[in-house]
Amino acid sequence: xxxxxxxxxxxxxxxxxxxxxxxxxxxxxxxxxxxxxxxxxxxxxxxxxxxxxxxxxxxxxxxxxxxxxxxxxxxxxxxxxxxxxxxxxxxxxxxxxxxxxxxxxxxxxxxxxxxxxxxxxxxxxxxxxxxxxxxxxxxxxxxxxxxxxxxxxxxxxxxxxxxxxxxxxxxxxxxxxxxxxxxxxxxxxxxxxxxxxxxxxxxxxxxxxxxxxxxxxxxxxxxxxxxxxxxxxxxxxxxxxxxxxxxxxxxxxxxxxxxxxxxxxxxxxxxxxxxxxxxxxxxxxxxxxxxxxxxxxxxxxxxxxxxxxxxxxxxxxxxxxxxxxxxxxxxxxxxxxxxxxxxxxxxxxxxxxxxxxxxxxxxxxxxxxxxxxxxxxxxxxxxxxxxxxxxxxxxxxxxxxxxxxxxxxxxxxxxxxxxxxxxxxxxxxxxxxxxxxxxxxxxxxxxxxxxxxxxxxxxxxxxxxxxxxxxxxxxxxxxxxxxxxxxxxxxxxxxxxxxxxxxxxxxxxxxxxxxxxxxxxxxxxxxxxxxxxxxxxxxxx
Length: 541
Known about the structure:
Low-confidence stretches: 4-10, 15-21
Number of helices: 14
Strand order of the largest sheet: 18-15-17-16-20-21-19-22
Oligomer: single chain
Distance between the termini: 90 Å
Helix content: 25-40%
Structural class: alpha+beta
Mean pLDDT: 93
Strand content: 15-25%
């Protein structure tokens, strides 16, 4: 009898264990599916309401003008827009869908005649209300996107809504972009407005690849500017955040679609400046490279993977297939989102990046292009830059992921990284990605690099509530103070969490920049939440 009771107890215990394990597996499967799920739509998570105490929302007009039926409205009668942060939800007057130059001219005339302000938007991957403003007429440039290749001149002329993804598809397989952001989701107009930079450490920023720009000013006139024509306007349009005019078309340098041998090495972050100076910078055959830093406890910003792309052939094979999409998107999204949930998953993510990622590398060019290279992996120049990073976008509606970027004089890199490591280690916000890029001295009006610099790009998660935004504000200000302590600057396309002191110390050219804005656009037709904010904290309302 006792044995029977014992067997019954053991069977109940076993069933309970099986139930618990089954429940845990089901729960884990549900969580994993949620973390791996693609976005079901854009995130609308509210609005950060001030910049250093300057209130950003404004009172709506009592009697807004009637919408002109001759304009191609995609939104009218109210509505809101947001950006990639999900935290910039802003009421606008309406959105005009631009697909030809005449749409721009008519929209600007309507705004001038009716006392409206105008903002310029496309993909809206800035994170601080740079592409719209309260009750403004917004020009949506995404369908103004023609691309014209001139193979003989080695240029491509594009309208501002064209994305780098679309441009690469036109250029491939013969040609490639000379300078662009490290991912291809951005519009050319947006990249010009922030003077973006990317993986080509020799080409530098977008500014260095621009042959000429055609711009429509606030009064409706058209002007051509370039590094040699209307230079002052060029220096303000490039990196001018859409405040000086509407770019109608840009003519950009292109290059042959070279073939690269890929490789990587793991180094200490503190050894990187010497590695760059002694090996990477002098190597004319190094076509692309970037550094990826550890976000894991124990090796935070200490270990670095250096990704190299060394040229082995001047042009890709003529029969090379079309550019493909990133693979294993769900797995990458799952690993990225798991990293938001503690040290163990951060270590897992870094281990995967160091050990497993190379085994799944896509080698798009046959080894026959470089006889004798053994088991090397080859790609065309377009391949590593043809990445729309779909794994970064998720369906987690109670949180958002925010970009930061800091530009540090090269001799201050190690001291800065040591300070950043301390700040990030004590922050409650999960650091998802950290990478290093190369920046040249930039001769534009509101320059982020008055001298050659390394840039640290951070991708940081926060909850989409007041507490999460306050934590992000505190972290941002700490990192900016550290940057200023080392003679650096912070990048302006991101959240408006800095103080007026930090803004003016980082960009002492700002008063002159704002004065030039008033000289070129005296009625301040072109505006954005970002513009109103920096004016207010700079004391120039």
